[in-house]
């Protein structure tokens, strides 16, 4: 077999004079892509710097606290241990960031209930029960009715 007629296992296209143009195009495109990728980091860095000031929290103690998912649906009692309502939801005020408990008062099986907003700080936890000591069902019904905003 003639040595000059043998096919080489690799392409010599990049080494030919006309192949240099393709090699340059590939190199330029690679540099452009790499430059764009590196430049995005500086674009992110040019944004307004944000800082988070977190106060130190004892996470072990915090973990023993009351989760909203467990508070919702809990009965609320007064000082006389009368059931005066049920916690329907927990809402944080958008302006002053104060948490409120939405209580469902009265009604039967969800019918005829009266929703009222009570500051979360008014509640007490006694023997793993939520209590609103000085409230009665009637005093809660006299509060303005709470209605959820449309989403």
From TrEMBL:
Keywords: Membrane, Transmembrane, Transmembrane helix. Residues 65-129 form the PRC-barrel domain. The keyword Protein biosynthesis does not apply. The keyword Membrane applies. It comes from the Bacteria. Signal peptide: none annotated. The chain crosses the membrane at residues 25-45, 100-121. This is Photosystem reaction center subunit H. It comes from Paraburkholderia phytofirmans OLGA172. The lineage of its organism: Bacteria, Pseudomonadati, Pseudomonadota, Betaproteobacteria, Burkholderiales.
């Amino acid at each position: 077999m003639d040595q000059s007629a043998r096919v080489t296992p690799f392409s010599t296209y990049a080494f030919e004079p006309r192949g240099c143009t393709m090699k340059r195009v590939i190199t330029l495109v690679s540099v452009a892509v790499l430059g764009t990728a590196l430049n995005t980091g500086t674009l992110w860095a040019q944004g307004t710097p944000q800082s988070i000031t977190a106060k130190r929290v004892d996470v072990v103690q915090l973990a023993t606290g009351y989760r909203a998912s467990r508070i919702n649906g809990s009965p609320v009692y007064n000082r006389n241990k009368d059931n005066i309502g049920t916690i329907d939801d927990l809402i944080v005020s958008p302006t002053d960031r104060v948490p409120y408990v939405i209580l469902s008062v009265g009604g039967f099986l969800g019918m005829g209930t009266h929703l009222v907003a009570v500051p979360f700080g008014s509640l007490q936890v006694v023997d793993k029960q939520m209590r609103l000591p000085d409230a009665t069902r009637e005093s809660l019904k006299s509060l303005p009715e709470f209605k959820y905003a449309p989403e």
